[in-house]
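ok new one. same drill as before - structure tokens go in, u give me an amino acid for every spot. 190 of them this time. try not to just spam alanines like last time pls lmao
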């Protein structure tokens, strides 16, 4: 339902109607709409197959980015649940524990390792949001003809540019930035 009609379409009343039951009977199984969104997050995390065994930090970042990008494409409506509810519980924590351990092995403190994981999550969710819009054919585009060439030469230079290239650029920039942070911390400590 979320993939077909968007996350906002997933309501207790709509689910009850699709199941042919009264909405109050759903309360025996789920108490709130947030509980439904949490369930969607659990399903997405199951399908993501995030690393839960030791890997190095860069492999974790690339695997996390690829898994979330894949989810955004396969579940364009449901993907929004990942930014609407806190991702919590042992399933989510297992992969983040692996990531923080990888960053710690690379020389980051516990706090910096946590910040590195959060940076990867922030960048990945942003790219994922755009990928899900693209999968729904809702990617907004600037109408170049509405912008005068003399005032917007940089935009006009993009006429034949593939906007999806920004996704891989974002990943490589994230990895390069994390690599630089790790190197800076190593040189400050050594």
């Amino acid at each position: 339902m979320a993939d077909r009609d968007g996350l906002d379409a997933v309501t207790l009343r709509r689910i009850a109607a699709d199941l042919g039951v009264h909405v109050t009977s759903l309360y025996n199984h789920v108490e709130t709409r947030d509980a439904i969104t949490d369930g969607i997050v659990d399903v997405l995390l199951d399908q993501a197959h995030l690393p839960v065994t030791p890997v190095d930090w860069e492999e974790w970042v690339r695997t996390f980015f690829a898994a979330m990008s894949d989810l955004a494409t396969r579940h364009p409506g449901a993907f929004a649940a990942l930014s609407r509810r806190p991702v919590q519980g042992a399933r989510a924590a297992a992969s983040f524990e692996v990531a923080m351990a990888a960053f710690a092995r690379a020389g980051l403190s516990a706090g910096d390792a946590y910040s590195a994981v959060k940076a990867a999550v922030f960048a990945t969710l942003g790219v994922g949001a755009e990928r899900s819009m693209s999968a729904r054919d809702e990617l907004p585009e600037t109408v170049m003809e509405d912008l005068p060439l003399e005032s917007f030469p940089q935009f006009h230079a993009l006429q034949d540019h593939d906007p999806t290239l920004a996704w891989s650029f974002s990943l490589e920039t994230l990895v390069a930035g994390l690599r630089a942070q790790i190197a800076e911390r190593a040189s400050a400590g050594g």
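The chain is about 65% helix and 0% strand. and btw The CA atoms of residues 106 and 182 lie 7 Å apart.
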